[in-house]
Amino acid sequence: MKAKMLCLALLALAACSPAPAPPAPVETAPAAIDLAALEGRIIARGAAPDWRLEADPEIGVILTTHGHEDTTSALFAAPQRFGERGAQLISGDIVLTLDDAPCTLAGASYPYTATVKAGEADDVLSGCAFVRWDAQLMALLPAIDSCLSEVTEETPLRISYAATQSDGRVLVRVRNENGGYDCRVTPGVGDPMPDIGPSDPALLIGGDGAAIFVRAPGENPGGQCYEAPEVRAADGALLGWMDDPEGC
After folding, report:
1. Could you list the pLDDT tens digit for every one of the 248 residues in the chain?
2. Pick from 58, 112, 60, 61: nearest CA to 82
3. Of the candidates 199, 211, 220, which has an alpha carbon nearest to the alpha carbon of residue 246?
4. Residues 14, 198: Cα–Cα separation, whole Å
């Protein structure tokens, strides 16, 4: 009987006790730029005034403003972490600051916002930035080949853009004289057929056309104008060529 009364007392005490407080929500830190993603050629641009910056270990840093009337150059310096979510490249008198926030310029979408300050100038140039898509060319090659397998044209086909999108699929833009195709591929084993159709002119992507890849086999796309640089695999096999976006 005493045991039973003790149990009832304990149950009553538990019923009267306040419920434990829920755990405090965990604050998620702001997204930060992946410095490894900036290893390719960085291109930033803006308007009013028009300006463009290219940063690459091979060519250095080149800033042009006012319709290429003014040019400032410096040796390349690797980007460093800046603040909680940004990155900064300081090369000589040129300071490029990137923020991991979407940016729109002339209707095209870019992954980074950018500001540039050069020398003693008080003005800070504002715009958008991206990394040339061909920095990931080797990883994108299976998706590119999958898309090209669906095109029967014999004319040289130029890849003007390829990158993984937010839905996990790889978007590949195949260019020809009639505009070309937009092709989407789901990476992985047992991929479904590529989703391919005419290129959508309303889909403006920052970085589209900044690098042009022509898949081997075939002839050097430079023709009589120039020799397009070759792209080779680690074993020396010819994969294709990087064509000049500006042409002859």
Report:
1. 444 444 444 444 444 445 455 454 444 445 578 877 787 799 999 998 899 999 998 889 999 987 667 889 999 988 998 987 889 999 999 999 999 999 999 999 999 999 999 887 678 999 999 999 999 999 999 999 999 999 888 777 899 999 999 899 999 999 988 889 999 999 876 666 899 999 999 999 999 999 999 999 988 988 777 889 999 999 999 999 999 887 66
2. 112
3. 211
4. 68
C-beta atoms surrounding 241 within 10 Å: 23
* Residue 86, burial from CB neighbour count under 10 angstroms (0-12, 13-18, 19+): buried
Contact 75, 91 (CB under 8 A): yes
Can you tell me the distance from the alpha carbon of 91 to that of 55, in angstroms, rounded to the nearest whole number? 9
Report the Cα 103 to chain-centroid distance in Å.
12
Nearest-CA neighbor of 134 among 61, 229, 207, 221? 207
* C-alpha–C-alpha distance, residues 168 and 152, integer Å: 26
Task: For CA atoms 6, 7, 12, 16, give the dihedral sign.
Answer: positive
Q: What is the DSSP string of 77-114?
A: ---EEETTTEEEEEETTEEEEEESS-EEETTEEESEEE
The residues that bridge with 164 in the sheet, in sequence order, are: 170
pTM for this entry: 0.80
